[in-house]
Amino acid sequence: MTSESSIARAGGLLSGVILKEQAVHADELPNRVDLGAVTPALIGLMLKQREQVILTELQRVEGGDRHHIAVLEKQASDIQCKLHNMEVALADCKKMLAAAHAALERLGQRLPAPALQQALKALLAGRTEPAEQLFAAVRARQGDQAAEAAFHLAELAYNRIDYAAAFRLYCEAVDLQPDNPLYNNEAGYLAKTIGRYHDAETLYLRALAIWERTVGAEHGDVANSLNNLAGLYLAQGLYARAEPLYRRALDIREKLLGTAHPEVAVSVTNLGLLHVSLSRYAKAEQFYLRALAIREESLGEGHFDVAVSLGHLAGLYKTQGAYAKAEQCFQRALRICEQAVGPDHPCIATLLNSLAGLYKAQRAYAKAERLYHRALVINMHVLGEDHPHVEAGMVNYASLRRMLNRLPDTEG
Questions:
Q1: What pLDDT score does 227 carry?
Q2: In the chain, what is the greatest distance between 2 CA atoms, to the nearest angstrom?
Q3: Alpha carbon separation from 13 to 9, 168, 317, 318, 394 (Å, rounded)
């Protein structure tokens, strides 16, 4: 189930490191299907092909419908997030393919055996078109299995970053099976993603009510649902609605998991994000420090999520002008990430840009220039020299170079 708690990292300085769900380990995949043929190179190629389609469409509709343009821009941004964290993108894709494989085996009993086997084999290679054709055939029958077929078509569309098709299919699954909390939740998640907040609220509230009725008010799924609804209200600036939901979710998780569990750290981080939005910086710092302590204790001081918490703290300190504290947090986060994913990973570029921005704010332009350059080199390697983000980085870097050249040589 998608939960806003799973993407709490998006509010910090490692923005975009995580998307829809947390990384899924291979032994958690349904049926333990062999997806070894689905590689980072394959996923990267598919994402870049999809990105070109979206960028072409953006050029075509320039000056047109604002909502359509906003959805296209969101899709392009989410592709960048995936490209910047290929490990998670790969894990998410494998989970989606494995779920589709299991569903097709369940739904395919009345389908032609050769077509079914071809579709199952294609899924193991990362190709979804044959499976989508069979899901569409099941969906067209309008029987008991139509809702599940529509749902998996939506999941596959979401995974390839086709949000318009995915939302339409999620809503179809909800219409066919309105009491399914998962279908309501996923439709609500995507509605929020594409800015359809009223639809998202309706779907999230329905999912919450169903879970409370079916599993009880203190269940983990209820905590996830509360986080989803709170995240929606936070996105709209409805802070008074968001806070009690975040607190209730935290209470449930503490009762179920204890006070030092990583999921509790996520709920604590969400409350920190809320208080930052309210400019309650002292309270936000308390929540961020608690989340950091939980992650250090439960995951280890060198875990990637510790770097995420440090990124939140660094951003908070920078906002307050506490540059020395911010620099310490950024530097430690950078060391952790370099150990965890290597010196040339895109998330390193994100941190380098953030640290460079901190130096620039202090007029330490030479330090900023070196970090901007290193981040640019990483992104050029990952995205290619012609990518719009790289071009923007080159413009920013050149601007800083011109500024530096006009200054006396006072720093090293």
A1: 96
A2: 77
A3: 8, 33, 12, 11, 21
